[in-house]
Amino acid sequence: MTILTRFVTGAVAAFAISLPAAATEYRIAVGDGAGGTQEALGNAFIAALEEQSGGEMTGKLFLNGQLGDEQDTVTAAATGTLDFSILAINNITPFSPSVGTLTLPYVILSQEDAETLTQGEIGQEMIEQTIEDAGVRIIGWAYSGFRVLTNSKKPVSTVDDLQGLVIRVPKNEIMIETYKSWGVNPTPMAWGETFAALQQKVVDGQDNPYMTVYAMKFDEVQKYITNLHYIFSIEPLIVSEALFESLSEEEQQQVLAAGEAATKASSEFLKAEEAKIREELVSRGMEITDPADGEKEFIELATTAVWPKFYDQIGGKDVLDNVLNALGREPAK
Ligand code: MLT
Question: Among 40, 100, 191, 220, which residue has the least CB neighbours within 10 Å?
Fold first, then answer.
């Protein structure tokens, strides 16, 4: 037990399984608020960890970025001052560029694609690369759905409609370049500042999955949704590699098994909840628009301009072609 942030809790009474007098409780940072896929993944992980370890290990979620902005939690976990974090993959890319392949526009076209990649060989390679690049280990994946565009000004269905809108994006080069390909110079901003910026109308809009729009109460500050499909949001659960390495082999297996169980639960959660959440947002006054012409213009502009720009960063065009091949698609042009 060399990691300073670990502490011991005696709060065992509430657990259904029989726990020892003191369980090790890990701190788990969560970027989003309650009700979204990040919280669901976190709760499923804690339940599975308790079960796997016979109650020796548990965790506590700190929602709404209480333990730091998403990108900052990667550094904190890498340096061993934080145990676990659940965050959007786009906020890991700056530390481990190869995972950027999963945020290239229009690569992942369904939940099934997201699961094929993350749970297969490609996901395993990314896990290893992320340990090397960023000092954190991905042990589970939340599936959150496509990042839809929201804004407070007007319905958007074409690239032309986007012009003039001030859109917040994460500090992620791929997403910045994607908006540029659509003729918009977006505003990169940390996740923790986004709600206030939308509320104060510093920016007009942003994109995130329905589940996140709901968990962050964006319906209070945004009116219009456009069903873009450019990124299917994947939200990994990461553990400090220093912490992981300090565990016994048995504990490591328990942590990994709990991550796997949480991933399965996340897949079911999205399937069960997304349509309900969409209806809930409509009942709260949000208006949903589909992109015109099957999104063709958005797709053409983004894939032509953005993919080649990032071949070097992701490790070469072959890396993208390998991903497309795993999804049964043709290599990039
Ligand atoms: C972002 O937009 O920075 C992230 O997608 C936020 C999130 O983790 O939900």
Answer: 220
